[in-house]
Each structure stands twice: as structure tokens, then as C-alpha cells.
Amino acid sequence: MYTDSQIHDWILECDGSTRDVTFMPVERVRVFTLLQHLLADYDVVSVSDNDGNDRRTDISNSSILAGHSGYLHLVLDSSASLIRRLQAFVDWDESEPGYCIEISFFPDELDMTKFSLAMFQDLIEDWNSVLESPDYFVRFENASWKLYDTNDLGVIYTRLTHPRTNKMLDRSGGPTAS
């Protein structure tokens, strides 16, 4: 387990890669609700699907996540948020249960006048409260990451392995890590 100081430094390290927050798959309605939640704070820069189509006009319609399989890539901006620019990737496949969502940002997109590790973790927990995902992974960008593998290279912390998150879960009466 890493210290808060290490986690803080790794989230902020400008090494050319993004920091990714990958959530375990959830129901379609939860992903759509999170997208609407994000749109309350962010302006849409672009939304494209797996065919490269511009889907900005469809972002408020839940049918944007319909079909046997698909992919959405959103770029969102906000001058007032902790993360000023983020990317959201949503993908789904009828052969797999649930919808996958990953939110990515470059460390230099963080508003350092607002940043603290606690504030960052609260933001991720806020997103997860909408998604109701059993776990999420805060990690360095890594194309060879074994999906949802806690011990794989680049995982900074997960919801179920970070002591602060576990204390928050204990207080809320929710599940705790074993």
C-alpha cells in the first residue's frame, strides 16, 4: 500500500501520460446518469462514437448508449472544476455484462489552486456514488494493463484498497475491503 504522499505525487507527476480512473462495469442507466452529472459542471468539446460520428447533439438522450456494442469518447472542459479538461471513454459489448467507463486527464489539467488529495478523492467518490461501481482504479495510463487487476503496474490505488476510502465506506455502512 502506498502513502498519501506517494499517491499525491503520482497523480501530479507530469510524465506525458494521463491518469485514468477506470470503474468496474455498471448498468447503462448509471453511466448515462454520470454523463448527465458531468454535463452539469462541464462544457462539451466533442463527443464521437466508434464510427467517428459527431454525437454532441445526442448526449442528452439515453439512446446514445443503445445498441449491441459501441464506444463513445467525450472531451469535456470546465474552468471552474478541479479537473479543467477530462476525457471520458464509454464502451459496451453485448457479450460482456455492463458498461465500462474510464475518465482520463493529464496532470497539468488539474487546477492546482484547488487541488488536494482529499478533494481529488472526494471527486472520484462523487462520480462513483452516481455510478455505484463496486470498485475503481486510479492509475497511470498503461495500454498493457490487465483490466481490473489491482496488482498490475501503474495502479496508484483502488476504492477498495485505499485506507481513506475504506474509512469513508465504513462510515456510510457500505461494503468494506476484506
Characterise this structure.
- With 178 residues, this protein is α+β, with helices and mostly antiparallel strands.
- The protein has one domain.
- Helices cover 26% and strands 28% of the residues.
- It contains four helices and seven strands, in the order αβαββββαββα.
- It has a seven-stranded antiparallel beta sheet, covered by helices on one side.
- β3 and β4 form a beta hairpin.
- The protein is globular.
- The relative contact order is 0.20.
Key features?
single chain, 7-stranded antiparallel beta sheet, alpha+beta, disordered C terminus, 4 helices, 178 residues
Short recap of the structure:
The protein contains 4 helices and 7 strands; from the N terminus they run H-E-H-E-E-E-E-H-E-E-H.
Question: What is the ordering of alpha helices and beta strands?
Answer: HEHEEEEHEEH
Rg: 16 Å
- Number of helical elements: 4
Overall pLDDT level: 90
Could you outline the blueprint of secondary structure elements for this entry?
Elements: H1 4-12, E1 19-26, H2 28-39, E2 43-49, E3 69-77, E4 85-93, E5 99-105, H3 117-131, E6 136-140, E7 155-158, H4 163-172
Antiparallel strand pairs: 1-5, 1-6, 2-3, 3-4, 4-5, 6-7
